[in-house]
């Protein structure tokens, strides 16, 4: 080293002393003790001072460099990837693009942060899809409402023109009756729109319901509806829980609509089955009628859809209302045919 070379270039002024035992034998390597000061040159003094400064600063500088290197390696291996993922995610969310996933694949703090961000993105995506479906449903409602209003309005307009001309009292009476019929139809249309609006804003009222009492009430309701329609009924319950939390009023309204619809289309009998699947409570209503047509399977749950020729009393809202109530209860509605006839299953998510 430079320091040793400088010291070596000057004569030794130190004497080595040793420790001895009682016998006079030396112990150890001894130690050097200087006798006089060494006169270094100016250049060597500066060199020794510089070496001393370097030796003093070497430890903190080395420590600082190691810390910087550790921080850089930690950032590159642990922070860069999740931060890039979060930065990309925030930019895409700001641009209303939610069709992506935040996947970091680690269980550390940044992994949990990315998982929370992904949960937020998924919730935003689900809310956006729900809003989009509601907007589309509202558009279809408005289109159907406008379409079905044309017929009574055209009739009313034509009869209003007839009343402007002289007619006998019988013709006037018949015209007034026809106008009254279509006015009543318009009133029912307006009431149906108001009902749908309330259905879209309804919120489930979760309550603890004892299954035994609920099952008994459901079977009585099914029996009364089928008896009124002159049809037989078969009621089955496979509910195992003693009590569950859900909105029994919404559930009963859906079941009543489904049973009434099935009784209207059944040849002789209606079968109702209550059961549970995972976190869902479901009711399946089947009839032995002709079943759903291909067009009905695709559109039966749409607003104002009906295959009935008489639309004055049947607006085609039964299954649509059932679908709305199921969705408000975080469930769904399933429509299909069996080898015996039509079948509709309503799912309601239970509150755990």
Q: How would you sum up this structure in a few lines?
A:
Among the domains are: 2-34, no CATH class; 137-200; 204-349, Histidine kinase-like ATPase, C-terminal domain (Heat Shock Protein 90, 2-Layer Sandwich).
List keywords for this structure.
352 residues, alpha+beta, Heat Shock Protein 90, two-stranded antiparallel ribbon, 8 helices, 9 strands, 57% helix, elongated
Element layout with pairings:
Elements: H1 2-8, E1 14-20, E2 26-34, H2 42-94, H3 109-162, H4 169-201, E3 207-210, H5 211-229, E4 232-237, E5 243-246, H6 248-265, E6 269-277, E7 280-287, H7 294-299, H8 318-328, E8 332-337, E9 342-349
Parallel strand pairs: 4-6
Antiparallel strand pairs: 1-2, 3-5, 6-7, 7-9, 8-9
Q: Mind explaining what this structure looks like?
A:
The protein is an alpha+beta fold. Among the domains are: 2-34, no CATH class; 137-200; 204-349, 2-Layer Sandwich (Heat Shock Protein 90). It is 57% helix and 17% strand. The protein is built from 8 helices and 9 strands. The strands form 3 sheets. A 5-stranded mixed β-sheet has the order 4-6-7-9-8, with helices on one face. A two-stranded antiparallel sheet has the order 1-2. Strands 3-5 form a two-stranded antiparallel sheet. Helix 6 packs antiparallel against helix 8 (318-328). The longest helix is centred in the middle third of the chain and has 54 residues, at 109-162. It starts with a helix and ends with a strand.
